[in-house]
Amino acid sequence: MIRHLQGLGTTGPTNPIDPELTRPAVGAWLVLIVTVAVALRALLFVLGPALEMERAAVDPSALALSHHMVESGRFARSFEDGHGPATLAAVNLIRGQVGQLEPYDAHGLRPETHDVPMYAALLAAVEIAALPQHVILGLQALLAAGTVLLVYGLARRLFDAPMPAMLAAVLVAVHPVFIMAPNLLLPVSLATFLLAAGLYLTAPKPTRTAWGSTFGGLAFGAAALAAPFAVLAGPVMAVWMLLTSPRGRTLLAAGLMLIASLVPPAVWMLRNHQAGLGFRLAGAPTIEAYFGAAAEVRQRLAEPPITPAEAVNLQLASLQEQASVDHDVYALMEHDAARTLIDHPQQTAEVLAARAAALFTGASTDWMYAVFGLTYEPTDPLRSVLTGDLTLSQQTDRAGAWLTLGQRMINTALAIVSLVALVILAWRRRFGALLLLAGALAYLVLASLVTPTDLLRLPVIAIQAVLIASLLTDPPPRRAPKPKKPRKKRIARSFDKSTDEDPPETAPAPTGRPI
């Protein structure tokens, strides 16, 4: 793959900044970057999950669901697994009261409709192969290395230069969140790899093929089965393809990509409909929108002010009042959340801005603490560092405050530089890349209304890396002044003075006899 990526569409020296950077040199640098990426993730693994695998299991339900897939061949939850998050448990209680909850079978299993199955299937494959759970983290480290290469390939195809592409790869390889994520049992590494694969296969216009677009669409569809927020990535990408290259060949490629991206989620939505959820990909986005974004809007509207927990309780009480046998509980939540967000645009904009700030400048310190087996309680990092006022008295809290502050500073710097890169892309008239990258960031910001921001941070950082890499591209050549169109010369007959005068009239020949 490295050999394929290192010379996309080029031969010999390709970089206008460094003409000596030939294809073999690019390949050597790529090998070094990937090696560093794997080594950093392996080092964190040795210091954390290798000592105690429980440190990686931040979501125990994923292991339980994968175990049931191995034992029964079903994506299901048992009595012993509990009801998951507290909000899901409350929704299931209401659905049970009105007779809409999926029943348990004779083996104590109930079809799982809250999550999507791709990541549990990956865990089940490792268990079927009788391999230790540590292998899962190794696979995720390889997926992270693959994401580094895919980000390089995407930047190379967008900007046609190796140096910017290598900068994007370096940013993804060494970013702390990208190093932590593969050492946790979370679907975000898998989803980010699949999204990067879809972008790499479908974005470049010169090398776009029908097969590449089809496989890119399948990658988008698989990403939706790993993280529901990716379900609209294929349709959005198809719109971008048609806007940037409205040709017959592009229409065919966009159509194939769109169909391929919708087939996997459509199959799973049909399964959920048969299980009793309706034609929905998963229940998690609906619950997040209702008890998350809509509850935050309600909190901002409340007089006197209320706490977030009180806003969630108000949402739950409203749902209990509306729930009945004749009304689907998930449909009620979707309708109420949409109405709340649409009817209060100012508060919705405030919620969206707050979530965007958390997405671009927030930290994932809880992930780092989980890797090292520590308990993290969030604090105000700047206040903790400057004043020493810590929530807890353990020394790890002070380290956590410094760690959180450092991550926020890194992410804030990336966000600022990315904004500058967007402006420069517009100035350089690279409107195709600008529309793709800005549109991807806007899509992820909107997805934060139905998805926790921690699960969106990896794709955001990958897009920012490509944006920042665009700063190393050459500015466009100055447009040469257009030559003035020559004025049409009037065709005028110019004669000499002698020719301007009419010739003298000759006397008519005598007709009679001379006198």
Quick summary:
By secondary structure, the protein is mainly alpha-helical. It has helices at 2-6, 23-47, 60-72, 86-97, 118-128, 134-159, 162-174, 176-180, 188-202, 210-226, 233-244, 248-275, 284-301, 308-322, 329-343, 345-361, 365-371, 381-387, 395-427, 431-447, 457-469, 497-500, and strands at residues 76-78, 109-111.
Structural overview:
- This protein is mainly α and 515 residues long.
- The chain is 64% helix and 1% strand.
- It is built from 22 helices and two strands.
- The chain has helices at 2-6, 23-47, 60-72, 86-97, 118-128, 134-159, 162-174, 176-180, 188-202, 210-226, 233-244, 248-275, 284-301, 308-322, 329-343, 345-361, 365-371, 381-387, 395-427, 431-447, 457-469, 497-500; strands spanning 76-78, 109-111.
- It has a two-stranded antiparallel sheet with strand order 1-2.
- Helix 6 (134-159) packs parallel to helix 21 (457-469) and helix 13 (284-301) packs across helix 15 (329-343).
- Mean pLDDT is 84; it is low at 6-20, 389-396 and 494-501.
